[in-house]
Specification:
alpha+beta; 12 helices; five-stranded mixed β-sheet; about 425 residues
Length: about 425
């Protein structure tokens, strides 16, 4: 008997597709994907990189999730052809208009499916408006993969622009998270960590009416302290590497920070991923002052080395391989100088040194990163103390030491020892 058709059905089932799309992503990076979409909108309307006055507001409860912004909105053509398409279209592999973060074409859809079973997207540009509502359970049971606008308007003259997304019929695990104050705080912390350069340049983000406070990244810089700076221009993009020290030894914040098109992908890494324990020795708390920053920029998003959830990188990526050599070079320089300065001055923390205390801080924002044009090695010129120093140590009963500290009005054993030494010299006329 002759087979009627030689075709084999390889079309995916919607339910399984959604399951595979959402199973490997936590809700926090899913929400950050929605933030990224708003930030890409901000980049399009603020080409000068100044984002003051723009906002992204997130509100969540056990009933619904809402994210809204005033970042320009989504035009109807983009919504029809790209925004809701599952996967990035081949004609969008490169975007010459700016450095964006929407690479794979799945971020918004994955986030919405992760959160709940019903969502609405309302968007307004200067001339257009649309309202799109989707009941996921109904959509799954239909053979078509398309979504349909509930309302569309063109030829408008809108003063206010932006996008609002409302998700309802939240998934059970999402409801339990949104009821937890602990989760809300962890989300704010996550957004702070996986910040963007844009958010550091004036774009306001709120979660349940709590402003996300972005601490500015700063490195010490003075006549005595010069951070490592290097810029690599490649056919497919630009790499900027900055490394140096802070005056606060915070081991949890030490390590490498890796950005792709302004989006932080790797936070304070101290593992083999960035060369610790391979090209250089393994991280130790004595290197708590170390900070390294890598900024990858490319208009061809497929050249960047991030994974689909933007929470890690592909170490085999060509741009990363190029950067890794300079990162290793920077680490060697900074680690060597930190070690030498602490040994020669006999201190455990660099902020015990006067020239470190007095050093100014350079803020790592878009302007400072963009203006790096000359390669510079890391250097501390004042590593030799003016007077050779030695450490004196002795042990005494704890109760006696505590009484002496109280009598002196001092809080540390070091201060007690120094005062005792000064007292002896004074009494003996030395």
């Amino acid at each position: 008997m002759e087979v009627q058709s030689k075709k084999v059905d390889a079309s995916p089932t919607k339910g399984f597709f959604i399951y595979m799309l959402t199973r490997d992503i936590d809700v926090r990076p899913a929400i950050v994907e929605l933030i990224d979409n708003s930030i890409d909108g901000a980049k399009k309307i603020r080409k000068n990189k100044e984002y003051k006055g723009l906002f992204i507001k997130i509100n969540m409860s056990q009933d619904r999730f809402i994210i809204e912004d005033n970042c320009g909105g989504i035009d109807i053509e983009t919504a029809q052809k790209y925004a809701f398409q599952f996967g990035r279209s081949s004609d969008r592999e490169s975007d010459s208009s700016g450095y964006f973060t929407g690479i794979f074409g799945i971020g918004m859809k994955r986030a919405l499916f992760k959160l709940g079973k019903k969502f609405e997207v309302i968007s307004k540009t200067s001339t257009e408006y649309f309202d799109l509502k989707v009941d996921v359970d109904d959509w799954i049971n239909k053979p078509e993969w398309e979504f349909e606008f509930d309302k569309v308007e063109t030829g408008m003259n809108n003063d206010e622009t932006g996008t609002k997304i409302v998700v309802e019929k939240l998934n059970a695990d999402i409801v339990s998270k949104f009821e937890s104050e602990l989760f809300i705080n962890s989300l704010i912390d996550y957004i702070q960590k996986y910040r963007t350069v844009e958010a550091e340049n004036g774009l306001d983000i709120e979660v349940n009416n709590i402003a996300v406070d972005y601490g500015k990244e700063k490195l010490l810089k003075s006549k005595d302290i010069q951070p490592y700076e290097k810029q690599i221009i490649d056919d497919s993009g630009k790499i900027t590497i900055i490394a140096g020290i802070t005056n606060k030894g915070e081991p949890n914040k030490a390590g490498w920070y890796i950005y792709c098109n302004g989006r932080l992908v790797v936070y304070a890494d101290k593992t083999e991923l960035t060369g610790w324990g391979i090209e250089n020795r393994a991280f130790h708390y004595s290197l708590a002052e170390f900070r390294g920053y890598v900024y990858f920029e490319s208009q061809n998003l497929l050249e960047l080395q991030w994974n689909t959830t933007k929470t890690g990188i592909d170490t085999s990526n060509r741009l990363y391989v190029i950067a890794r050599q300079s990162m290793s070079e920077a680490m060697k320089q900074v680690i060597k100088v930190i070690d030498e300065a602490k040994r020669k001055h006999d201190v455990s923390n660099l902020d015990e040194l006067d020239f470190v205390k007095k050093a100014g801080k350079t803020e790592l924002n878009h302007s400072t990163i963009a203006n790096i044009s000359e390669n510079k090695d890391f250097n501390i010129t004042e590593v030799e103390p003016e007077i050779p120093m030695v450490r004196i140590s002795f042990s005494k009963p704890l109760n006696e030491v505590e009484r002496v500290k109280e009598n002196m009005g001092e809080r540390t054993n070091k201060a007690v020892g120094e005062k005792l030494f000064e007292y002896y010299c004074e009494m003996e006329g030395i």
